[in-house]
Structures are given as structure tokens and as C-alpha cells.
């Protein structure tokens, strides 16, 4: 695989394009929004500059990587000769299903279609294509250039060969891939989100305050960030929607979102991106530093 198309150039898409470009792939970055593409290119250059200043990259390697990236607002043009698509568009079922119907039409028959979805069923996405054996989850973590893990999610019909190829390709990007099966929340969010929900219940029931809960988890469990602050960074709306996927998918009340979380999202307190969640944020402080 040499030619990669990344669909969606937001938080995750620009990180994924960054990593593939650094490892010498020819990257077509596609977004419906021209300004989003321009912003993504700026972010990639800024993040690469940071890597240069830390001695992780030379100026020449940076220039070569930036040259590997081409941008497109047309999906059809951006995926014409591609070997692998990594879809990182907005987390919305209808958006993803429509994209995969089109990807199935526009990409070469041999092309593997991967999605970076956090919570949507790979099997459901694969079912709208005529190549379910070549549809797979590649769940990168934020920030992509820094985080080592890729959850490689096998849909019901994903082939053994495609799974092996994607595991191998992920290792080639200096990532650590972990193979998991396609059930709600996969592994990362199935374990993380109930922990965050429990932290919110602990606050809701008055067992302890925000900073106390986070301090217990940071100092007691050696977590780099407490669960309430982490929830703010992920976005409380995103946490709520993933908990709803778990709740509905398993039909088990243990995943029911805490009423405090529901209230906060309804009131517009969605975490760092809105300036307030469990903590208050000064504008722009959400960006994680690479
Ligand atoms: P984002 O909102 O930052 O970026 C989404 C981008 O997709 C936007 O630039 C938007 O213009 C574009 N887009 C929307 N519809 C499109 C279409 N039909 N064709 C092309 N581009 C389209 O979203 P973010 O956070 O980067 O998330 C992307 C995916 O990655 C989602 O599936 C999310 O669940 C997943 N994810 C997000 C993580 C995070 O920490 N933000 C972590 C792991 C996975």
C-alpha cells in the first residue's frame, strides 16, 4: 500500500495524514470544507515544526512529508488511485453510511476501506458496501502523532488477510496495533467510558468533589489525568453519545449515562471545547501539546 486517502481533516484526520506522510506514503486528504483542509495543513506543519524543534525530525524530512500531502474537496478525485482509505469524518451514522456507499463506488475494487469511528459498528458500515471483507476499523488515539495505540477492529465479515495487512501496516507506522472484535465501544471506550461515567456518578452522589475524584485517580492509580478532566477534553457530548451506544448495544443498565452528564450536555457545558465542563478553560487551552 503506497497511496492513502484520509477522509475528514479535523482533529483526527490531520493527525492521521501527518503520520502516513512522515512514513513516506502519498496522502490524499479529503474534506467537504476547503477552510478545514487549509487549517489541517497549517496544523500539520505546526506539529511537524514542534517535532523538528525536539530533534525528532529534520527540516528535510519535514519538507518531504509535507510534500507527500495533497488536498481535495472532491471525494471522487481524492480516492481515485488509492490503496487504503482511512475515514475520519464527523461521528454521525448517516454521514458515514453515505461516505462508504460512495467510497465503494469511487475506489479501486482492491482498496481497503478503514474507519476511525469511536463508536459506530464496523459491521453496519461494511454492510452498505459490496466489499464487507475489506472494511475494517482503524481506531487511532488523539493526538495521533504521539499516541502509540491503534485498535484494529474486525467487523463480522472482515477477512483474515485484510486484518493481517492492517496490523502490519500499523506496525510500519511505529504504532502498536491491537486486534479486537466489533462489539459496542470495542475495547478502549467499553472500559474508559464506564470509568468516566462512574466518576460522574461519584460526583453526582456527593461522595467527593471534582478535584478530589481526579486526584484519587491520578495519584492512586497513576493515571496521567483524572477521569473528569479527561471527559472535559474528550467532550461531554462525545462521552454521552458513546455511553448511549454501549447502553443500547448491550441493553444493560450498568451503562446508563449519569443524569448529571445528561444535564450538563443539555445545558451546553460540553467540556474544554465550550470553555466549561467540570473545569473552566481559557479559550484555546484545549489543544494538546505534542
Ligand atoms: P472533527 O469534527 O474534528 O473533524 C471532522 C471533519 O470531517 C470536519 O473537518 C468535517 O468538515 C469533515 N467531514 C464531515 N463530513 C464529511 C464528508 N462527508 N466528507 C469529507 N469530510 C467530511 O472530528 P474528529 O474529532 O477528528 O473525529 C473524526 C472521527 O474520529 C470520528 O469518527 C470520531 O469518532 C473519531 N475519533 C475521534 C477522536 C478524538 O479524540 N477526537 C479519537 C478517536 C476517534
Fold and architecture overview:
With 290 residues, the protein is an alpha/beta fold. The chain is 47% helix and 14% strand. It contains twelve helices and eight strands. Strands 3-2-1-4-5-6-7-8 form an eight-stranded mixed sheet, with helices on both faces. Helix 6 links the parallel strand 5 and strand 6. The longest helix has 20 residues. The model has no long low-confidence stretch (mean pLDDT 96). It binds 1,4-dihydronicotinamide adenine dinucleotide. The site of 1,4-dihydronicotinamide adenine dinucleotide (NAI) has 23 residues, from helix 1 and helix 5.
Short description:
The chain has 290 residues and is an alpha/beta fold. It has 12 helices and 8 strands.
Write the layout of secondary structure elements.
Blueprint: E1 3-7, H1 11-22, E2 26-30, H2 34-53, H3 59-67, E3 69-72, H4 75-78, E4 84-87, H5 93-106, E5 112-115, H6 122-126, E6 135-140, E7 149-154, H7 160-172, E8 176-181, H8 188-204, H9 210-221, H10 227-234, H11 236-250, H12 259-266
The structure holds 1,4-dihydronicotinamide adenine dinucleotide.
List keywords for this structure.
290 residues, Rossmann fold, N-(1-d-carboxylethyl)-l-norvaline Dehydrogenase, domain 2, 14% strand, binds 1,4-dihydronicotinamide adenine dinucleotide
CATH class of the largest domain: Alpha Beta
Structural class: alpha/beta
Residues in helices, as a percent range: 40-55%
**Number of strand elements:** 8
Strand order of the largest sheet: 3-2-1-4-5-6-7-8
Distinct small molecules bound, one entry per kind: 1,4-dihydronicotinamide adenine dinucleotide
Q: What radius of gyration results from the CA coordinates?
A: 19 Å
Q: Tell me the number of structural domains.
A: 2
The percent range for strand residues is 5-15%
CATH superfamily of the largest domain: NAD(P)-binding Rossmann-like Domain
Amino acid at each position: 500500500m503506497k497511496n492513502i486517502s484520509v477522509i475528514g481533516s479535523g482533529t483526527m484526520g490531520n493527525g492521521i495524514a501527518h503520520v502516513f506522510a512522515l512514513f513516506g506514503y502519498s496522502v490524499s486528504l479529503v474534506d467537504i470544507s476547503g477552510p478545514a483542509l487549509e487549517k489541517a495543513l497549517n496544523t500539520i506543519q505546526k506539529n511537524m515544526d514542534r517535532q523538528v524543534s525536539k530533534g525528532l525530525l529534520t527540516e528535510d524530512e519535514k519538507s518531504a512529508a509535507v510534500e507527500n500531502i495533497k488536498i481535495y474537496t472532491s471525494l471522487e478525485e481524492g480516492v481515485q488511485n488509492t490503496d487504503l482509505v482511512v475515514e475520519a469524518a464527523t461521528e454521525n451514522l448517516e454521514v458515514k453510511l453515505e461516505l462508504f456507499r460512495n467510497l465503494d463506488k469511487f475506489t479501486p475494487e482492491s482498496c481497503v476501506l478503514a474507519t476511525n469511528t469511536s463508536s459506530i459498528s464496523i459491521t453496519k458500515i461494511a454492510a452498505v458496501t459490496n466489499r464487507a471483507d475489506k472494511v475494517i476499523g482503524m481506531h487511532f488515539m488523539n493526538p495521533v502523532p504521539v499516541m502509540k495505540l491503534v485498535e484494529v477492529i474486525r467487523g463480522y465479515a472482515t477477512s483474515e488477510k485484510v486484518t493481517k495487512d492492517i496490523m502490519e501496516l500499523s506496525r510500519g507506522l511505529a504504532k502498536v496495533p491491537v486486534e479486537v472484535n466489533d462489539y459496542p465501544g470495542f475495547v478502549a471506550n467499553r472500559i474508559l467510558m464506564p470509568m468516566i461515567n462512574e466518576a460522574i456518578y461519584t460526583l453526582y452522589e456527593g461522595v467527593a468533589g471534582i478535584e478530589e475524584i481526579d486526584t484519587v485517580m491520578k495519584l492512586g492509580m497513576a493515571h496521567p489525568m483524572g477521569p473528569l478532566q479527561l471527559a472535559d477534553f474528550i467532550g461531554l457530548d462525545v462521552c454521552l453519545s458513546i455511553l448511549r451506544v454501549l447502553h443500547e448495544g448491550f441493553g444493560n443498565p450498568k451503562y446508563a449515562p449519569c443524569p448529571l452528564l445528561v444535564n450538563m450536555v443539555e445545558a451546553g457545558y460540553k467540556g474544554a471545547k465550550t470553555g466549561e465542563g467540570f473545569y473552566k478553560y481559557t479559550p484555546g487551552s484545549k489543544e494538546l501539546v505534542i
